[in-house]
Design brief:
single chain, 337 residues, mainly beta, nine-stranded antiparallel beta sheet, 6 helices, binds zinc ion
Length: 337
Amino acid sequence: MMKDGLQTMSKAQLYPLRFDPIYQYRLWGGRRLASLLSAPLPGDGPIGEAWMLSDRTDQQSLVANGPLKGQSLGQVMKQFPEQLMGKLSSRFTRFPLLLKLLDAHEMLSVQVHPSDDSSELIPAGDTAKTEAWVVIEAVKGSHIYVGLKSGTTAGSLHQSLDNGTIADHLVCIAPKPGDAVFIPAGTVHTLGNDVVVFEVQQNSDVTFRLYDWGRIDSETKESRPLQVDQAFACIEFGANNSGLVAARVETTTPVERERLFDCPAFLLWRLLGQNPFQVGATAEPRVLVCIGGSGQITHNGTPYAVSKGDIWLLPAETGECAFQPIREVTLLEIAIP
Ligand SMILES: [Zn+2]
């Protein structure tokens, strides 16, 4: 059945693709993604991450709608490279971004990801990892740590690991919903105490844990491994390009369109509107994430209902599509530069 579907599809046009989340147990997670995703969570343990769009070999997002339902993102990339990726098709054989929701009930480990300058620390087939967060929920007492305070040296940071005072060396943000936080590769970072964020990152799984707050995983009864030497090797001491970023308003009608992130790995806008507006772009893919309200995408006369918590990939060949909010909608739109 699936095979016939794919063969029939190969000459047909692609269409807006919705994907199902992949839930991940994490000891620091919670149960708050259920309301955001408008769906019950599996089991009753802590769910820290929902991978919303993933083209990782071991964790493939599956199409949830239409003739390609059940196909993985990797299969669609392989079967429809030009139709999906447009002018980017020669640059990428796998989808270059990994998109997640994080529910950090407790603090995550203090961690860092390598930049291209530390290529010897990146396994073959993986990449550097710059990432960014859009805060969805936060409470009094939520924390985001991003970057080192000025004057922190490798020596003082090492010493702080021994005496448990690493937080004194990290720039601390008290997050509010709507905040945008940029974390270039090489930046020490963590977050927690009941904060929910949307995360955009390069499609990489390379994380070096510097410190885990002395915690024991209740599932394995062990502390999680640290990679202190590798972490130190990729920390950019003295960098000051991370942290809260100011939203830049690009348009106010027919939709309020703010650019939050613009870096070599991704672009991200927040769209807030009540009236019809355009989403997607000619000859390149775009991703839409609905973080508030609901609405409808129309492509080739076919409506696609968009609910809070949905993620949609608009293939390059669908180009611009009309978006009709139901009352008010808040979307994140993501592009690959
Ligand atoms: Zn990270």
